Amino acid sequence: MSHKAVTKLRDWLFEPVPKGRIAAFRTLVYVFVALDVVFFSAWIKSHGDLPGNLYQPLVVGEVLPLPTPTPLVVGTIYWALIPLSLAAATGRAHRLLGWSVFVLYLEYMIVAMSYGKIDHDRFGLLVALAVLPAAGRARHGDKELTEAGGWALRLTQIGVVCTYFLSSLAKLRFGGLEWLTGATLTRAFIRRGTVLAHWLLGIPGFTTASQIGIVGFELLSPLVFVVKPKVRAAVVAGFYAFHLVTFCLITISFVPHQVAMACFLPLEKVTPVRWTRRLLLRPKPDGSAEQAREEVTEAAGDVHQGAADGLDHLGR
Amino acid sequence: MERLSTRGRVTRVAVTLVVVVLTFAGTLVGNDFWFPFAPFQMFAIADKPNEPVLVLRTDGVDTTGKRIVLDERNAGVRRAEIEAQIDRFKADPSLLRSVQDAYAARNPGKPPLVEVDIVEVQHHLRNAQPTGVITEVVLARWKS
């Protein structure tokens, strides 16, 4: 590879992002972990009650070696994950809390996947949890750019896109080209389809065309990295739309994957706390002084930020 | 802007390479036991376009002769679990007595079940399209 290409690849891998985006992504991901444990993946907790002879340890479970799940093991992880992930969502002690949540959540997923059924809907989320502790300190609303944060989001994006791209390779490896014209979707529609799915089954060729479309979309998904920013936003919106349609047809949500996919979005622009504050402090007829004070403070903040950016430019 | 040290960059490039290599290897040559680097193989099996799609259903018949579809709510029956253990039920249909008991416990006051059937519903296909023909075969039957 030429020197120029290496530099370009390196710049891409470490493309800086505002720290505010990292803070927002942290909050989203860690709040989701708590919700996932309690609601979305509540079935995992019952794995502690299963007889030990149903446990089929994964490679990682044998190498480390991890304990056979018991109600105590699973319950401990469950009750530790909830407060730790909520604490991590604040962005404080990002390394200590981040690593703790990553290790516990990974072990929780290993428990989930050690009974014969392996899902791939949370690979991107696991990547996000693995890299967020190394993304550096970040406060909400901070506009300063960070390379460590940029890398963390980039690797999560790679994990998300791998989920699509490698799904298509897995279909070709396990199903072969016959997958395209097979009855995989038909079977899924019949077995767990919604009313809409059953109606669509009546359209000749619908499932075959959809299967070809799915593999095409999955194989082309890495293009999201090379298209222009505006097109990229549309592509990511397309990814989300794909999961919405999947949910409407066979009620498979892929929620963990969708949370990880938020790494493509300018999350720093979503500022619910500031919006609420603004809504509450909306100027009353007699509150003009307060409003003016607020505006001055904000303007001062911008000047300060401007000065900071200027210093950055000078190579501070 | 907060920049990374050279060491910080080198470590991260190494991590990136390891993750990408393991992820690709998992799908190209690995198996399920490689999780979290297992193949991304949900829905990756190609189902035959001209073979019927099989769905198991559990039926109960009560003392009035009424046939009831048993599910997670009225009898604690999960389809996936019945499917996973179908060979046991075929070999020893008396195991279905537990379903009968579960129904009685969840439906006090309703007529009890006198029969529990595991029915295989076959949806016939042609070129991956349902033909509309559906046949039912009883795989296991328990009568009290």
Describe the structure.
The complex is a heterodimer of chains A (316) and B (144). By secondary structure, chain A is mainly alpha-helical. Chain A is built from 15 helices and 2 strands. The longest helix of chain A is centred in the middle third of the chain and has 29 residues, at 147-175. With 144 residues, chain B is an alpha+beta fold. Chain B has helices at 6-28, 72-75, 79-84, 86-91, 97-106, and strands at residues 53-62, 67-70, 113-126, 129-143. In chain B, a hairpin with a 4-residue loop joins β1 (53-62) and β2. The radius of gyration of chain B is 25 Å and the shape is elongated. At the A-B interface, α5, α6, β2, α7 and α8 of A face α1 of B.
Topology:
The complex is a heterodimer of chains A (316) and B (144).
Chain A (H helix, E strand, L loop, with lengths): L2 H11 L3 E2 H22 L18 H5 L7 H18 L5 H19 L10 H9 L13 E2 H29 L2 H4 L2 H9 L2 H6 L5 H15 L8 H22 L4 H7 L10 H9 L7 H26 L3
Antiparallel strand pairs in A: 1-2
Chain B lengths: L5 H23 L24 E10 L4 E4 L1 H4 L3 H6 L1 H6 L5 H10 L6 E14 L2 E15 L1
Antiparallel strand pairs in B: 1-2, 1-3, 3-4
Largest interface: A-B, 60 and 43 residues
Number of helices of chain B: 5
Task: State the separation between the terminal residues of chain A, measured CA to CA.
Answer: 33 Å
Report the sheet with the most strands of chain A, covering strand number, pairing sense and barrel closure.
2 strands, antiparallel
User: Which structural class should the secondary elements of chain A be placed in?
Assistant: mainly alpha
* Radius of gyration of chain B over all CA atoms, rounded: 25 Å
Shape descriptor of chain A reads: globular
Describe the strand arrangement of the main beta sheet of chain A, using strand numbers.
1-2
Order of helices and strands of chain B: HEEHHHHEE
What is the percent of helical residues of chain A?
A: 55-70%
**How far is it from the N-terminal to the C-terminal residue of chain B, by CA?**
77 Å
Mean pLDDT over all positions of chain A: 89
The arrangement of helices and strands of chain A along the chain is: HEHHHHHEHHHHHHHHH
Question: Structural class of chain B, please?
Answer: alpha+beta
Give the amount of beta strand of chain A, in percent: under 5%
Basic shape of chain B: elongated
